[in-house]
Description:
The chain is of the alpha/beta class and 494 residues long. It is 39% helix and 11% strand.
Amino acid sequence: MKTNDEALLKIKYNVLHEVAKLAFAGELEEKRDEIPFKLIPGPKAQFRCCVYKEREIIRQRVRLAEGKCPSNVHSDNMIQVISSACEECPITRFVVTDNCQKCMGKACQNACNFGAISMGRDRAHIDPGKCKECGKCSQACPYNAIAELIRPCRRACPVDAIDMDLETGICRIDESKCIQCGACVRSCPFGAITTKVFIVHVINEIKAGKKVVAMVAPAAEGEFGADITMGSWRTALKKVGFTDMVEVAVGGDMTAAYEAMEWAEAYKEGKKMTTSCCPAFVNMIRKHYPSLINNMSTTVSPMVAVSRMLKAKDPETVTVFIGPCMAKKSEAADKSIEGNADYVLTFGEAIELMGAKDVKLEPEEYADQEGSVFGKRFGNGGGVTNAVIQCLKEQGQNTDIKVAKCSGPADVKKALLLMKVGRLPEDFIEGMMCQGGCVGGPSNLKQEVVWKKDRDALIAKADGRGVWENLKNYDMDSFSMHRSFAKKEDAENK
């Protein structure tokens, strides 16, 4: 993950490392309160104003590492605010700068309909209690003296789910709007927004002797270099205590095949549809475009498909998804999805889980290809469409369809709005909330330009098997590939 400050990752992962070590040793309950003092020995502060604030930040991060909210206030939302780390950003959106000439025309004052602007001794003044953040003063100023300062988290949020307490300056998340995409997490320069982590839960399942199977997202290929294969992941995870590992690329094949059948039927009926594999995209439709729920594919995501396959073989299996997506945590928490993944870890969280046992990803040859090339590229922007088209070709179906390949909030919102008003020119929408698809997820550890060459090199080694050809190796009749989308109360009221 790339943030505005690489030091944020060091803090986060140091906490996870310590928590994981204590959890494996069975000493977390006894030594939990020692972690802030171990990481922040003092007397000098390392990254904030004082050691006391730093230790409180660490304490709240420890709670998050245990899958808890940072405060004692319960919330089911996966995205959480670390209150002790948030308050450094400007509260007011519009600020008068030194460019102010205190001109005679008072254009800013005249433009304000709320009486928020007064004249001080040297410059104009904006009363934050009266300001409605309409921006008319900034537009009216002839000297461009009124700057617009939008908090990074608020600017990044695609659904306007973030505001702040004007008294404390602490960011607040409107959970009725939040789609849990993780854009705010990535954007915060203070690391004040993050997610719940289930690393302790996974460790406890392993220590209990349960059959714990990792499901690694295809986005992992290339992320850690051209010599780190899916075989590298399997070996490392088994050393930690996982029973086995499965490539979620095969889940991509499963989802593509069954979405292809839905698309073919919908196309014949003249019905427009959307994909359903990106959980943030699904949350976007359910919360902000509820009238389009019936236009969404009912095919489950690759993560759920693989989890159902594993649980169909052994219902006692504990499934753990590992990937670059934070929204997957909200999907796994949805108990209405039968056979769902039990836990989700990001790449960084999985690395710290392994590091707690002194296990590293090592170069390894890998011949046990589980997914087709189309499944492996499922997480790329346009990858879902390419896989679905391939399935239609293999089944002799019509492929003369138009698809809006949307990656990133702007593309997604535009396409959904056009579909809502009946003006979408395409037949289907591929919706990915992250720019570039899953491979651009907020928990990626490297930028795309760094790992793209390695990713292409790894995938190029895969054979050219078709999607349906690959699925012959799996018992697709042992589990369902569909789910239902019930309208939530908040959606029905829109």
